[in-house]
Amino acid sequence: MKQPAKxxxxxxxxxxxxxxxxxxxxxxLLDVTLVDNIPSGHKFALTDIQEGSPVIKYGxxxxxxxxxxxxxxxxxxxxxxxLLSENAEYTYTPDKASLEAWQKKAEVAEKTLPQINAYKRAxxxxxxxxxxxxxxxxGCVNKTAEMLAAxxxxxxxxxxxxxxxxxxxxxxxxxxxxxTDHEKTRTILADLARHPNAGGVLVLGLGCxxxxxxxxxxxxxxxSVNGANDTVCGATNGSGAPAPNTQNIDFLETQSxxxxxxxxxxxxxxxxxxxxxYKREKVPASKLVIGMKCGGSDGLSGITANAxxxxxCDLFTAAGSSVILTEVPEMFGAEQLLMNRCVNESVYKDTVxxxxxxxxxxxxxxxxxxxxxxxxxxxxxxxxxxxxSLGCVQKGGKAPVCGVLSYGDRICRDTTSNETVAQTPxxxxxxxxxxxxxxxxxAQEKPTxxxxxxxDSAKGGVYLLEGPGNDIVSTTAMTAAGANIILFTTGxxxxxxxxxPTIKIATNHPLATRKINWIDFDASxxxxxxxxxxxxxxxxxxxxxxADGDYRTxxxxxxxxxxxxMKEGVTL
Length: 572
What we know:
It is a single chain. The longest helix is centred in the middle third of the chain and has 20 residues. The strands form seven sheets. A seven-stranded parallel β-sheet has the order 19-22-18-17-23-24-25, with helices on both faces. A four-stranded antiparallel β-sheet has the order 1-2-5-8, with no helix packed on it. The chain starts with 6 loop residues before the first strand and ends in a 14-residue tail after the last helix. It is of the alpha/beta class. Helices cover 30% and strands 18% of the residues.
């Protein structure tokens, strides 16, 4: 293992370098003598930066100097200001070098990744867990759902060892919402009810809510409410075992039965009995859908964890996997880099609309688009939103951007091919109209659901998903879009977990060693790796072990899994 450097200049054009450990004034690094103490993850000037001049990191501006910054000086919020504004002009200039570099990997990647053991589902997708999910239609039954999940884990898990656990996805919505917010709630909950990591789902309603079970069935499929044998959706083979690739959904409206606990447990056991007969089968790793998220960034995020995840992204997408990037506000300042990797001009235009519509969302609420870095981000060395965004998009590697998804859209695999397509929720035309209305008067067209052409979908790639930076909302959105697993990088640490396995990747070694109950992988190893992809291969191995069910992520071990749904409008 080589000795890691004490500071790094990321790009040859950069005017700043990043400290990889605390540095003291008087030290000389990269031919510069420091005039200030520099905390780990923070920046120092490599040359004099004149007032008003751009500060360059990752080869791109991260802001402008508000005063003369002398070489060796600390570069941070006290002397740098964002260059972002609500209005920006974009051009489609395909990044041929990045796409060619990715294509070279595609030629060998399919042979690099071994097959995984997963559960085949009806629509061609695969699940890496065989869980039973309880999806409340309304927050009023949250505690009932929570109690049923806890009781089922105590009483049914040992009886049905093929089940990986019972989980209730609690939320406060499903009633007292109107228009777009109501439809967003219904769409996200329906997406969860059809998620491939669930071998069985109990939809739990109250009876008087807006999101009634009877109407919710239109989104997820079903034949009756509170019925007997006909309420489980999905064919069987005659012996009670599920037919190949089926998913099972049952429904319970609690106001309509005398004892919802007894009925609920009966339905959960019925689901468990059927779903436990699913078996893991060999499938290509390219079937995986991977969500990528960063939370609590620091100055090392774009150098270690996000850069490492970018290498993983290139490997898996080149082999045919779909990768989801969201956190649209954390694309501001780096969006042109993503636009230049769009596979065609149609996807480029959808990406422009995605960015502009999210900026409109900010301005409609009287907010500026550039005040994003949190106090923790700034403590860790992030100076401006451009600084954060340029590090954030490193997670996408050099892979092509092959589609844009609306909030609530799902990525699905065609059952007869390996083609990835975006699937818009089939709720109602009113849902689409309401969503478009919420984009604001300045939105020119719906910026989403870019379906691949046959040529574009021959290999995998990156999908941009409409969604905010908020950790719980964005991980829920990626889960709803079909992510089997989420790679979550963090420089500050968090116990948060999505409904799917969430691999926490620390940007720095002190965090990885201090919070061993939260962190699954230490990305700081990339700084001292002997070979170019040594750390990438270690993380890839962990991803494959997680997909196979041989490794349970820290969020799974600790029971840290939750959801949150985005809202914008009135609560009645």
